[in-house]
Amino acid sequence: MQRAIQAVLFDLDGTLLDTYDLLLTTFRYATRTVLGEVVPDEALMAKVGQPLNTQMWDFTNDDSVHEELCRVYREHNAVIHDDLIKLFPDTVDMLDRLKDEGVPLGVVTSKRHEPAMRGLERFDLGAYFDFLVGSDDWPEHKPSPGPVAYGCRLMDLEPGSCLYVGDSPFDIQAGNGAGCATAAALWGMFPQPVLAAQRPTFSCSRCSEVPLLLAR
């Protein structure tokens, strides 16, 4: 009997990789350097899960300032990346269990392709995945369903047979919109009520719960 879930797609930041400290430190540095002011942490992290270009428009309406915010962010992030990025405790075990079941895996992230791959390779995770869709690989971005639907096509599967796992409301919106089953990663950056409001198919408190969804 064929499983209902035949493939699993993952968000990256806050889902596979613990990047909270990395992102917050970089946002603080970029906004203080370019704007000369301290932006509250809650505002800095409010739209994590969308592309950096989108997030930075929250802090300026000026094109040149926006460009400088993105430039300073990316340069500083590249310097501190390997020191601050971390793995969630169960990430590798989860991926091993899914691979043992023969489940194809992919990544769909709002991060650009190169830095996203750098994060995976920092912990030798790249070989687990058949592909990675970054923000520069597809013209639409989460919460649009486009990049998730594209990931399903790369698997040669209908969205209804794929699970998308993410920790932001934008992930759940994108996965639901694409027609996938969705799993809210409660170990990530957003609180449970924020994710529950988007009506995910499943909610998981730990990475280790994701493989159990294959039997649902």
From TrEMBL:
<dbReference type="InterPro" id="IPR023198">
    <property type="entry name" value="PGP-like_dom2"/>
</dbReference>
<dbReference type="InterPro" id="IPR023214">
    <property type="entry name" value="HAD_sf"/>
</dbReference>
<keyword id="KW-0378">Hydrolase</keyword>
<dbReference type="InterPro" id="IPR041492">
    <property type="entry name" value="HAD_2"/>
</dbReference>
<dbReference type="InterPro" id="IPR036412">
    <property type="entry name" value="HAD-like_sf"/>
</dbReference>
<dbReference type="GO" id="GO:0006281">
    <property type="term" value="P:DNA repair"/>
</dbReference>
<dbReference type="Pfam" id="PF13419">
    <property type="entry name" value="HAD_2"/>
</dbReference>
<dbReference type="InterPro" id="IPR006439">
    <property type="entry name" value="HAD-SF_hydro_IA"/>
</dbReference>
<dbReference type="InterPro" id="IPR050155">
    <property type="entry name" value="HAD-like_hydrolase_sf"/>
</dbReference>
<dbReference type="GO" id="GO:0005829">
    <property type="term" value="C:cytosol"/>
</dbReference>
<dbReference type="GO" id="GO:0008967">
    <property type="term" value="F:phosphoglycolate phosphatase activity"/>
</dbReference>
<protein>
    <submittedName>
        <fullName>HAD family hydrolase</fullName>
    </submittedName>
</protein>
